[in-house]
Design goal:
InterPro entries: V-ATPase_116kDa_su, V-type_ATPase_116kDa_su_euka. By secondary structure, this protein is of the alpha+beta class. 60% of the residues lie in helices and 8% in strands. Helix 2 crosses helix 3 and helix 11 packs antiparallel against helix 14.
């Protein structure tokens, strides 16, 4: 939905009917086509039709240009991703800069991409080498510790053995000594492998090695306290250093395969302590060199990304605009000479002069020798729906559009929804204390809307910000209804005057109204505060809110039927006036309009009549006397008359309309076989505008069944919809009682303990309960119920909602969308 902030060349806003639209044709020379579409995109008031819908995207005229723009868009997305990873923010376009050439942008993007890809590849290689050396250093440290410990242990054991042998030499024979000597050629030489294995796989790794070699290995593992970056994945992982001793080449090959399967990185290691120290020195020096080189590469990369960030938004907008222009050009068709492009599209009637001016400017600026041709076409197609809204009315229009987009020139429910929606919400949310809290929240969003509109908000916050003016209106009406209910966080205040009642004597209690006498004038505005906390409070407020809900519901349903009359008059459909509007208004008001009148009369007269009894026996026993339930003279005669009119209204809605439509169809199509084709189309168009179905063959049975369904739906809906408005009473009562419970059972109970700690806890619980339940959940609940009352009970009386939105080609939309 387009948003217009007033001013300029646009005529005054009118929300009741959508803007008058016409189908226009534009014939543009090839040399000025690009600039023409660009200017029309800046204008944003033409919705082009696709005249090449039978062609695939690859068969269209500008497929190569779109592919080229797509490739540039890919490079820009690549730059955006790289800047996001590096924490570089694109520079905003503060002012309109000179237009840049697309060819220059393409060359520049290609050069920058090649340079950035090369830097990234080099950096990845260096980083991988650095991570490998870091792992190698850890292996040298941990395995070196293990070998050093083993060497010390072996030395100690060797010295102990030698000492023991010296003692035994004195006792043993030389022949026995020779037998104990070991042949060096028969000693077993053990091989070993070192490396790192992920910690979560270390136990399984050890178990598999043991089973594969049938226990003919010896493995030691050492835990690395800090996470290390894996050279292959580039992600941090917790690992263990392992050393596996084995015997034989067959065992070695098995161990190598298992290491490969478990993603264990292996590194060479020497038993010689001198070589270990030399390798550690070399690795440390190499790590220092790599660190310096990587830091220099990252600095160069950041400098390059900052250079890209300075022009990023400008390039991004340029590429998006060009892609949108070529997409639009592909919707235009080539004429037979292939020298002009022909386009068709919908535009508002008021925009004709602006479009012609844009065409002239494009022809002059492109140095075209031939100007563009603009003409209005006659068509039988249904035009799109276009309402010009501002930042205040946009949210209300979107509430209506969520149900269905208005048919072209159909009466727009938004006009009344701006008032009725927040008011019905407030009837269910009547508390001026809660209303002030919501008002503060909405004012914060409104006062900071410029700053917040440029930020990325979360889903819920984005929704609340979009409906900030709806929330503002809901808060104002909630304060109003809260003053009527006289509730401030469920506490009554005598704001406008003192209570009209006083206690008769000392026995008067707060728990009952018995003993109260009227000593002053009636409380001037809203509910008298004396009712709160009495035994009669619930019956009194129940009766008040239930009757008020019926009055509001019948009023809004009548408004819906009156809107259907406005539609019928606008589309010049006398059939809908006399055989839809009239019987519907009679049926509704003879039953529920009469009930509303009885409610008002009972309020004014103070009668004790039972309205349930009156309405039930109006149908069951219409001829019986009313007795004590009579509210005015000749009430029985009035009821019989209303009942008769309501019964007559049902066949009045059902029967005449299908027969009249059939007769009109036969009259229009009499002698049609001798008429020209154009006249046939016009007759169909007249029928469509007149509210008919526009079929070439009139299906009477289909029309009759449709009318039967419509009649049954209205008759039953009149009862169910009226009952549905009782949700206003139910939710208002629930909100009031919840608020009262939180106040009495949390705040007052905590106050009664005379303990500062308990009081603070009670206040915190009260605040969180009020905000979480009453200001969030109850607000959402009342919002959804108000939404349902508008969509189902109100709009179904007149609103078809089968149109489609006006979606003009506009660079404003192109600049805001995310690919």
């Amino acid at each position: 939905m387009a948003e217009t902030h007033g001013g300029g060349c646009c005529p005054p806003m009118d929300l009741m009917r959508s803007e008058p639209m016409h189908l226009v044709q534009v014939i543009v020379p090839m040399e000025s086509a690009h600039l023409t579409v660009s200017y029309l995109g800046d204008l944003g008031l033409v919705q082009f039709k696709d005249l090449n819908s039978d062609k695939s995207p690859f068969q269209r005229t500008y497929a190569a240009q779109i592919k080229r723009c797509g490739e540039m868009a890919r490079k820009i997305r690549f730059f955006k991703d790289q800047m996001s990873k590096a924490g570089v923010s694109p520079k905003e376009i503060l002012e309109k800069e000179n237009d840049i050439d697309l060819d220059d942008v393409e060359v520049k993007l290609g050069e920058l991409e090649a340079e950035l890809v090369e830097i990234n590849a080099n950096n990845d290689k260096l980083q991988r080498s650095y991570n490998e050396l870091m792992e190698y250093k850890l292996v040298l440290e941990k395995a070196g510790e293990f070998f050093a410990l083993a060497h010390r242990s072996a030395t100690a054991q060797q010295s102990e053995i030698e000492t023991q042998q010296v003692r035994e030499d004195l006792l043993e024979a030389p022949l026995l000594q020779e037998e104990k000597s070991v042949d060096p050629t028969k000693q077993v030489k053990l091989g070993f492998l070192t490396g790192l294995v992920p910690r979560e796989k270390s136990m399984v790794f050890e178990r598999i090695l043991f089973r594969a070699t049938r226990g003919n290995i010896f493995i030691r593992q050492s835990v690395i306290e800090e996470s290390v970056v894996d050279p292959n994945s580039g992600e941090k992982a917790e690992k263990n250093v392992f050393v596996v001793f084995y015997s034989g080449e067959r065992a070695k090959s098995k161990i190598l395969k298992i290491c490969e399967a478990f993603g264990a990185n292996r590194y060479p290691f020497s038993e010689d302590l001198g070589k270990q120290a030399q390798m550690m020195t070399e690795v440390s020096a190499r790590l220092s060199e790599l660190k310096t080189t990587i830091d220099a590469g990252l600095d160069h990369r950041n400098t390059l990304l900052e250079t890209i960030g300075d022009k990023f938004e400008q390039w991004n907008l340029k590429v998006r605009k060009e892609k949108a222009i070529y997409h639009t050009l592909n919707m235009l068709s080539l004429d037979v000479s292939k020298k002009c492009l022909v386009g068709e599209g919908w535009s508002p009637v008021f925009a004709a002069a602006e479009i012609q001016d844009a065409l002239k400017r494009a022809a002059v600026d492109s140095n075209s020798q031939v100007g563009s041709i603009f003409q209005v076409l006659r068509t039988k197609e249904m035009p799109p729906t276009f309402f010009r809204t501002n930042k205040f009315t946009t949210a209300f229009q979107e509430i209506v559009d969520a149900y269905g987009v208005a048919k072209y020139q159909e009466a727009n429910p938004t006009v009344y929804t701006i008032v009725t929606f927040p008011f019905l919400f407030a009837v269910m949310f009547g508390d001026w204390g809660h209303g002030i809290c919501i008002l503060i929240a909405s004012m914060y969003l409104i006062l900071r809307e410029k700053k917040l509109s440029s930020q990325k908000l979360g889903d819920i916050m984005e929704m609340a910000f979009g409906g900030r003016y709806v929330i503002f209106m809901m808060s104002l009406f909630s304060i109003y209804t809260g003053l009527i209910y006289n509730e401030f966080f469920s506490i009554p205040y005598p704001l406008f005057a003192s209570s009209a009642y006083d206690c008769r004597d000392a026995s008067c209690s707060e728990a009952t109204t018995i003993g109260l006498i009227k000593t002053r004038d009636t409380y001037p505005f809203g509910v008298d505060p004396v009712w709160h906390g009495t035994r009669s409070e619930l019956p009194f407020l129940n009766s008040l809110k239930m009757k008020m809900s019926i009055l509001l519901g019948v009023s809004q349903m009548n408004l819906g039927i009156i809107m259907s009359f406005c539609n019928a008059k606008f589309f010049k459909s006398a059939v809908n006036v006399w055989f839809q509007f009239v019987p519907q208004i009679i049926f509704l008001n003879c039953l529920f309009g009469y009930l509303s009148a009885l409610i008002i009369i009972k309020w004014c007269t103070g009668s004790q009549a039972d309205l349930y009894h009156v309405m039930i026996y109006m149908f069951l026993s219409p001829m019986d006397d009313l007795g004590e339930n009579q509210l005015f003279p000749y009430q029985k005669t009035v009821q019989l008359t209303f009942l008769f009119l309501a019964l007559v209204a049902v066949p009045w809605m059902l029967l005449p309309k299908p027969f009249i439509l059939k007769k009109q169809h036969e009259a229009r199509h009499q002698g049609q076989s001798y008429a020209q084709l154009d006249e046939t189309d016009e007759s169909l168009q007249v029928e469509t505008n007149g509210g008919g179905h526009g079929h070439e063959e009139f299906e009477f049975s289909e029309i009759f069944v449709h009318q039967l369904i419509h009649t049954i739906e209205f008759v039953l809906g009149a009862v169910s919809n009226t009952a549905s408005y009782l949700r206003l009473w139910a939710l208002s009562l629930a909100h009031s009682e919840l608020s009262s419970v939180f106040y009495e059972k949390v705040l007052l109970m905590a106050w009664g303990f005379n303990n500062i700690f308990i009081l603070m806890v009670g206040i915190l619980v009260f605040i969180f309960a009020t905000v979480g339940v009453l200001l969030v959940m109850e607000t959402l609940s009342a919002f959804l119920h108000a939404l349902r009352l508008h969509w189902v009970e109100y709009q179904n009386k007149f609103y078809e909602g089968d149109g489609y939105k006006f979606a003009p080609f506009s660079f404003t939309l192109v600049g805001n969308e995310d690919e």
